[in-house]
Amino acid sequence: MILIVAEHAGGQLAKSTLEMVTAARESGREGPVTVLVLGQNVAEVANAAAAFADQVLVADLPGLATYNAEVWAAATAQIAQEGEAHTVIIGGSRSGREYAPRVAVKLDAPYLEDAIALKANGNALQAQRYTYLARVTETVEAEAPVIVVTVKPGSFAPAAAAAAGEQYDVELDLPAPRIEVTGRSLEKSSRVALTEADVIVTGGRGVGSPENFATYVEGLADRLGAGVGATRAVVDAGWRPYAEQVGQTGKTVQPKAYVALGVSGAVQHLSGMGKSKYIVAINKDAEAPIFKVADYGIVGDVNQIVPALIEAARK
Amino acid sequence: MKILTLVRQVPDAEARVKINAQQVDLEGATLVIDGMDEYGVEEALRLREGGANVEEIVALAVGPKRVEDALRTALAMGVDRAIHVETDEKLDPIALSGIVAQVAQAEGAGLVLVGGQEADWDSQALGAATAERLGWPQLTWTNELKVEGDTLTGRHDVDDGNESFRASLPAVVTTQQGLNEPRYPTLPNIMKAKRKELRKDDLATYGAQPRVRVVNSEIQTRARLNRMIDGKDPQAAAQQLLELLRNEAKVIA
Ligand SMILES: Cc1cc2nc3c(=O)[nH]c(=O)nc-3n(C[C@H](O)[C@H](O)[C@H](O)COP(=O)(O)OP(=O)(O)OC[C@H]3O[C@@H](n4cnc5c(N)ncnc54)[C@H](O)[C@@H]3O)c2cc1C
User: Which residue in B36, B69, B35, B38 sits closest to B190, CA to CA?
Assistant: First the structure.
């Protein structure tokens, strides 16, 4: 069987789970597509998942109330072993890529990380992935009785509802978490999620200040119905939350249009947005590297161009 | 406590990537310590300077002969000694974690520091896989770290924000930008580093086998329109850009 570990938050099945279902079905690997739901009070998530999978395994346990890498890895490996999974698919979120390697070690399995495409090749499994700050696309291959994969968010179309999969409750032997969380600061944005937005307006240090960021970047995003992104420089300066960061150490996005305001275009930033369909750059420095990847560029001051854009978009 | 800090060598981020015979070709590329690992080396030094009970700091690298340069840099930054497992074999992170874990055990390390993401393979797997092999907890994407006795506290990034944590040593910590500013080796320290121990180890000792094969690598760049709009008249530029986005790119209504 192909075992997918569901990603969910706030009682909702995440879109990434449906993307993993597509990855499983497109891979050409055989056997039922099984979704494992880990958590507490996850009946609704399990019901939602059942519409997309051949079967759903539900571990609704107090020990799974909050994510912990060791606990998630133990649970996943246990189910993979009991169900004799030959493929384990985990989301390529920060947490997914944190516990998936532990699952691979536990199962003595090869690990294909952050796949953007998956294809069976006889008994082997081939994956494509980005390397060298997303400048290279590599095809990697592994062959083993069980293979662990993480799937990059946004790389597969979400699956459409198909059959009503049976649900089964599962028992688990969970380790006690050894990391105590003493504080949490969650950054919830009220805007369109970056990984789901068709248009993203991103501000860099060139925007000048947190106040300007609100006026120009949020102002333009509101006009265009867009998500808001930020560079690492802006996040490090404390102008914007980390949740908005795009790049190597932030989110990877692929909108139809990416509008970069006062962004220099450092390789680490490009690695997170370079696959956008259209890139727009506004920067006062004609030599800024962002123009090399831009479809439309304006050499100019954001203080002048952006108010004009907001005004023009209003009409 | 002994700290083991892993050092990888990667092409400089600004360097052009070349492909030859379907594989990335590093011939002639400028190679540097992976920035994410450098934060780990720096953090080990700062923990000691900050008064934590650090007996020794050991840097480990696995790779071809040239990787010595990265170890020399770590020695010049201030680590006490280095271990080089010399091999031309490409080891995937899960295979590599087997070596890191064995060295950590043999050295009796209480803390292993590894970069959070590799700048060449874009992998985040090494820290977690090492922790699993050792049976230790892991703290990933750490941007604040304190060690008092056997207690580790700090802050790290999670899916949608960040968390403060407390854990007991031993542990694996993955490091990233924001944790510190790595120091530059000074000339006297570079000279001193030449006399520090750099032990060579044989890959065969560790029995690590790669499990993932690279079949093909290619550079795919999307052709960009590179259409420049004159910004002298902001109103006209704004108008023109919106028209292009609406009618040519058809990305906004
Ligand atoms: C390991 C590592 C990981 C990293 N990860 C990320 C990441 O995930 N995401 C990320 O973004 N960065 C990341 N970085 C940082 C990256 O290298 C750059 O430092 C960062 O992207 C720069 O942000 P910036 O473009 O906002 O700022 P700057 O580089 O300061 O550029 C500001 C730009 O604004 C222009 N400008 C100034 N004033 C105006 C004006 N009035 N009007 C118009 N233009 C103006 C300037 O010409 C300049 O091009 C990482 C770095 C490292 C080492």
Answer: B69
Measured CA to CA, the distance from residue A145 to residue A150 in angstroms comes to 17
Task: Measure in Å the smallest separation between the Cα of B52 and chain A Cα atoms.
Answer: 20
pLDDT number for residue A191 = 76
Band of pLDDT at residue B161, cut at 50, 70 and 90: confident
3-class DSSP string for A51-92: CCCCEEEEEECHHHCCCCHHHHHHHHHHHHHHCCCCEEEEEC
C-alpha–C-alpha distance, residues A4 and A10, integer Å: 19
Question: What is the interface pTM, i.e. ipTM, of the complex?
Answer: 0.94
Chain A residue with CA closest to B225: the answer is A295
A72-98 per-position pLDDT tens digit: 999 999 999 999 999 999 999 999 999
pTM recorded for the entire structure: 0.92
Instruction: Say whether B125 and A101 touch across the interface (CB within 8 A).
Output: yes
Cα-to-chain-centroid distance, residue B4: 14
Mean pLDDT of chain B: 95
Q: Which residues of B touch A297 (CB under 8 A)?
A: 226-229
Q: Which atom of ligand 1 lies closest to the CA of B176?
A: 1
> Is it the case that residue B141 has pLDDT exceeding 90?
yes
